[in-house]
Amino acid sequence: MAKVTAPLLSFGGTGQVGKSIVFANWRGVDYARRYVIPANPRTTAQQANRTTFGTLREMWKLAPSLVRAPWDLYAKGQKFLGLNAFQGENMLAVAGQADMTDFVGSPGAKGGLPPTTFAAATGSSAGEIDLSFTNPTPPTDWTLISAIGAAFPDQDPSAVFGGPLVADEDDMTMNAVTLTGLGSGVDCVAVGWLEWQKPNGDTAYSVSLADTATTGA
Amino acid sequence: MTKVLVYDTYRGQVRVRAWPRPRHYKEGSAAKLQSEWFRSAQELAKRLTPDQQRILLEATNGTPLLPRDVAAMLMAGRLFYIHNPETGNIYPMAARQDVSESLDILASTPGQILIRGADFWEGTTPSFGGGGWFWNEPPGVVRTDTSTSSYCFKGGQYDIFDDILVSGCGAIFTPVGGGSYQMIIGELNESDEFVSLTKSSVVEAPDSERRPYFFDIDATLNAGTRVAIMAGRIDSTATYALPAAFNRQLSFQLPVGGPYSARIASTDPMIGDAINTTGGVNVIPMGLFGQIT
């Protein structure tokens, strides 16, 4: 595959030519490649990967704005979307695994500091889990805005996503988030990260830390 | 215009040129490894503890460096050192190797030492194979004076703690141009008399510049003895240019104790001669080249 600057001596071009070459455009990048009919062997591994890809796509569609925000900031100014980064990072993390305990909730954007510790525990009510954060000393002129947590029922990544994916934030004490609506007695994967304001006013997100817990029964 | 024309300034002149063609090349395995290491280092930098990240943030605040740049330097082993209040700083091997490779530009033969020459630092030309140089660290007295008395050999007394096979010696002094100089190493008895004496080769000073002078000598220093190591002029008793100034003396750990003053008023010292030990002055930087056995 090759990037092209003036496909077919024009300002732009897409489509296949003579079943031999294909011109296309991806996120503003013109490229040309050989015309290929994929082999598509539909092996077990290939199908599992495809399902995992679809599961992550479904998670993104169901993700609240709190979950999407760090990915969108990470992708800002890049030739990919937050969705692409979300799927890419999490495919590397969970593809081929038996569960989703390696799920990445936040990739980190603009250099935010992560929590010192993060823990998930069974909530006091049915379908609840409690997330607790220990936060670091802020750098000079940095302000901690909120602690954000998200959770979903743990599952095989190569299975269709059962949901839900819930998230909430604590912008008062920045150290405790309670998530509800996850179903009673369900093993869940929980992730947490911090939102900061930098001295120049920019927002920064930390990478996420992960834990597992069973919801209240 | 994106990917069509480039507007820039070259040597103060505005110019317009076509977008440069990409120069594709096949990345070698070493480059791929380096790229993968760098990518992993950047990812790992985001996952340092928050305290570490805060330290990096504040360290790079106001500088062109990013915290992740400094983190990458840390991971490459080139930034940090461990401070021990008793023994000093312990630097990583990577940093030591970098500095060593830089110094190899000046001196790369095992056993060489660096000396500040007239124009720049240079490595000595070793006359001997193997072993290492030891230079004394003089006591607190710092004197600069030329001799006004008839002690043509001057140096110091040293207590020997380890057996040393000496194959060379040196001293830093300001000679009289054209004078012939020699060093002597002799074991002393309790009466400060020589019980053994070895004399080095003779070196003629080309000028009156202060510099290190090196002499060939074969001597054995025995542990538990006291020796006198002196340098002197052998072709005249009338004028002397020793001792030399203390500044710029080299100070390695010498496996000897002392020095105490040693001088002798003879151009040809012999076994049985006694040295003068008027102390505290006239101690000049001296060194030995040899091996501890």
Task: Explain the overall architecture.
The complex is a heterodimer of chains A (217) and B (293). With 217 residues, chain A is an alpha+beta fold. Chain A has helices spanning 44-62, 65-75, 82-94; strands at residues 2-3, 15-17, 21-26, 29-34, 107-109, 117-122, 129-134, 143-153, 166-170, 176-179, 187-197, 203-207, 209-214. The model of chain A has no long low-confidence stretch (mean pLDDT 91). The N and C termini of chain A lie far apart (54 Å). Helix content of chain A is 20%, strand content 34%. In chain A, the strands form 3 sheets. In chain A, strands 5, 8, 9, 11, 12 and 13 form a 6-stranded antiparallel beta sheet that branches. In chain A, strands 1-4-3-2 form a 4-stranded antiparallel beta sheet, with no helix packed on it. Chain A has a 3-stranded antiparallel beta sheet with strand order 6-7-10, with no helix packed on it. In chain B, strand 10 (180-188) and strand 11 form a beta hairpin. In chain B, helix 1 packs across helix 3 (67-75) and helix 2 crosses helix 3 (67-75). Residues 127-131, 136-148 and 239-257 of chain B have low confidence and may be disordered. Chain A binds chain B through residues 3, 5, 107-108, 111, 113-116, 135-140, 206-207, and chain B through 3-4, 19, 22, 46-47, 49-51, 53-54, 57-58, 61, 66-68.
In the predicted model, the low-confidence regions of chain A spanning at least 5 consecutive residues are none
Largest interface: A-B, 17 and 17 residues
Helix/strand/pairing class of chain A, anyone?
alpha+beta
SSE pattern of chain A, N- to C-terminal: EEEEHHHEEEEEEEEE
Helix content of chain B: 10-25%
| Straight-line distance between termini of chain A | 54 Å
* Helix-strand makeup class of chain B: alpha+beta
Low-pLDDT ranges of chain B: 127-131, 136-148, 239-257
Bin the strand percentage of chain B: 25-35%
The largest β sheet of chain A comes out as: 6 strands, antiparallel
Q: What is the count of helical runs of chain A?
A: 3
Quantity of strands of chain A, as a count: 13
Q: Largest sheet of chain B, described in full?
A: 5 strands, antiparallel
Indicate the percent of residues in helices of chain A. 10-25%
Q: Compute the average pLDDT of chain A.
A: 91
Secondary-structure element pattern of chain B, one letter each:
EEHHHEEHEEEEEEEEEEE
